[in-house]
Amino acid sequence: MARRDEEFPVDLPGHTVLGGHPLRWASGAIATATLFLAATNAVAIDGWAAELEPTPAVARLNAATAWWRAATDRVGLGAPRAALHTEWKKAEAAHLPGQAAAEE
Amino acid sequence: MLFPTLTFGLFFLVVFTAAWAARDNEWRKIILLLASWVFYGAWDGRFVALLIGSAVLNWGTAALIARTDPEALGRRKALLTWGVIANLAILGFFKYYGFFLEQLGDLLRAGGVERDLPLMQVILPVGVSFFTFQGISYVVDVYKGRVPPAGLLDITLLMSFFPHLVAGPIVRAADLVPQFQARPRLERGMVAMALCLIVWGLFKKAVIASELATGFVDPVFNDPGAHGAADLIVAAYGYAVQIYCDFSAYSDMAIGLAALLGYRFPRNFDQPYRSASLQEFWRRWHISLSSWLRDYLYIDALGGNRGGVAYICRNLAITMLLGGLWHGAKWTFVIWGGLHGLVLGAERLWREYRPQGWPGLPRWLTILFTFHIVVLGWIFFRAPTFADAAAYLAGFGRGWGALTATPLALVLIAFGLAMHFAPPRLMPAIALQLRRLPAAAAGLAVGVAILIIDAMRFEGVAPFIYYQF
């Protein structure tokens, strides 16, 4: 009942051996993505912290995430996400011409 | 703990670090097992005991079968029967107790007998259908000599492993236990593909499925009487896209997360809406369930294709009816399964008795026909009750009415259908490019993609549809 290799989607065709340790490469990629998101998406971190069950520790966490959000916003790191989110909300709110008339 | 949340992201970072820090494979498996129990316990800690009990049950039964003299067929069969019944009893109690008692009550009332039945509110443990099927397949595979019996740690981890635990894919012992035997080795291509699958799954769930569900599909299905045929038709297509994007997203992320920990899961979806028959659809949709039903129910239990055409059609119908019931204790699921069984039987009859010389239909037409059969089935699958499904279908004859779908919903539906006709090797091609990048560049690409998805995602994350199964 062994399966054929192509049934495992993470097995890519060809076995090109690239330089560097794969685990180091994976860890580096994950760490970079994490740091990038922590810097550019502080609003999500702050929102997540705000939804945690309130305890004294969570209150301290909330203060820290709010400070981090303000700090990243001050230097403009949160701007790309905010701009894209605004455009997406506009797309969500858009209606076909007839629909707008029907609602009125 | 839902995959597309920061809580899960942090949890996974800790597990990834701890698992790869462990030099010894046995300790690594123990870490993954404890992490899986923490993951499962986040829903309801009580059911971790059920998960452990189920694993011990299947490990013990398989070990006894393997230790029994191969000539003692009766004893081996009795052990197999015990193992299967015990698994089905767990599933039956948690999933079908209330349903069957309700039906019994209705039946007794219809016969003029009024009885107080021992009704109670049974909480459905998340993922119980998945891990019991996994347990059954392990016991049957050991009985049939397809896999050797495994150690308790391996079986417990097989059944508890958090990436597949709550909504599949149903990973069999033959696939995963051999991978547990040694500390896994990562490959750069495997990591690149894993990252692509996680990002793609996140997009399908957080953007397409959530947006369609909240913005259009749910309001129409919740009140079909208030909508005209245009809305009902588009919402049915919308649900087809939503359920695909929801469920395949979970599978993609599960496969990607397992790969980052060094383990390979089998494919679970393969562009199902490009199928030219229902038989092909089931080779592309929820592949781990359809192959499970084929191997253990259709072939092992019912005899497969060994009899005549009528026998085959009967087996198809039974398999699909039970497949429907597997999804939940509701008549709408039974009807959904019955419809699939009926059409699979009709396809079989057509193949057997099609007059010679009749031209075949063009592939695009059979794809269109198959898709609409599937969409019809989804209406029953999605509707809360049979009456709701009937009201929904009756609405098709009510007049066109105004279309309330927003342009965004229409674009997402079109995109969700179009992705079925993208080149099948597109994702591996992207992963091949990603693996050539330095780690920082690859991480940056993944980070940018997740940031874009997060900016587009609907507020909050609804649970995956298949969590309820």
Brief descriptors of the model:
heterodimer; A: 104 residues; mainly alpha; 5 helices; extended; disordered N terminus; B: 469 residues; 2 domains; 71% helix; 0% strand; globular
Major sheet summary line of chain B: none
The radius of gyration computed from the alpha-carbon positions of chain A, rounded to a whole number of angstroms, is 22 Å
Main beta sheet of chain A, described?
none
Distance between the termini of chain A: 62 Å
Strand count of chain B: 0
Helical percentage of chain A? 55-70%
The string of secondary-structure elements of chain B, in order, is HHHHHHHHHHHHHHHHHHH
Compute the number of strand runs of chain A.
0
Mean pLDDT of chain B: 92
So what's the overall shape of chain A?
extended
Number of helices of chain B: 19
Most extensive protein-chain contact, per-chain counts: A-B, 50 and 63 residues
Write down the Rg of chain B: 23 Å
The overall number of domains of chain B is 2
Continuous helix count of chain A: 5
Helical amount among residues of chain B, as a percent range? over 70%
Note down, in words, how this protein is organized.
The complex is a heterodimer of chains A (104) and B (469). Chain A has helices at 22-40, 42-50, 56-74, 79-93, 97-103. With 104 residues, chain A is mostly helical. Chain A has one domain. With 469 residues, chain B is mainly alpha-helical. Chain B contains 19 helices and no strands. Chain B has helices spanning 6-21, 25-41, 46-67, 73-110, 128-143, 152-160, 162-165, 173-180, 188-222, 229-260, 278-284, 287-301, 309-327, 331-353, 363-382, 386-394, 407-418, 426-436, 439-456. The model of chain B has no long low-confidence stretch (mean pLDDT 92). The interface between A and B is large, with 50 and 63 residues.
